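My current task is to audit a protein record that another person submitted. Alongside the sequence sits a line of tokens, each denoting a local backbone shape. Please read both lines and tell me whether the tokens look consistent with the sequence. Do not assume that whoever made the record got everything right. Thanks in advance; the entry in question is below.
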Amino acid sequence: MISKLPRWVEYGAFVLAFVAGTVNAVGFLGVKHQAISHLSGTVTLVGTGIITSNGNDVFHLAGILLSFLAGASLSGALLPGTSLKLGRHYDSLLAIEGIMLLVSIYLLKNNSLLGHYTASAACGIQNALATSYSGAIVRTTHMTGIFTDLGLMIGAKIRGDQFDRRKAILLLLIIVGFIAGGSLGAYLYAWMQFFALAVPAAICIVLATLYRVYAVKEPYGVS
């Protein structure tokens, strides 16, 4: 439940959504209008591509899906349990995400398809990281579930149920963060092409460092 999560989760969710929005905008503008941070459209393209496209396109899209899955699997392997607890490998995963985004810059600048895969894996790491401690409430790399949850809450309020103000604020922060990240990604891509990914990479590394410092100062953790 969102009420059991510490207050700083809202800030973290906003920043992670901002990172995902930036990465997705760069991918959309620079990688054949291909989304990177979410998979619904990619899965659809795989399905349609089996009929309408050549095999190379389908295999490439399948590679993006498997890369996201691999990133999420890495988070699952390093994060036991579903509660938020200091001392777990959130910093390690954020650092790996940042490094993978930096690697993506090199690969994409050299027209390597591997850059699509490393960027997708980075997003898989991030989304699984957030989902693991929030009970699937916080999803920062795609907005479909966020808008669905917000719509359900509004409908329940119309029906007369109590409105969870904190959860609504969290969902709105994620939406605003993703939109703001998309705007920054578009601006940066127009200015510096794939080097724009250095910004979300740096944010991930800074977050990892801040988490490590905080975890050392608060040894009893949060659960």
Observations:
- The mean pLDDT is 80.
- The chain has one domain: 9-217.
- Residues 9-217 form a domain with the Growth Hormone; Chain: A; fold (CATH 1.20.1250).
- Residues 30 and 194 are 7 Å apart (CA to CA).
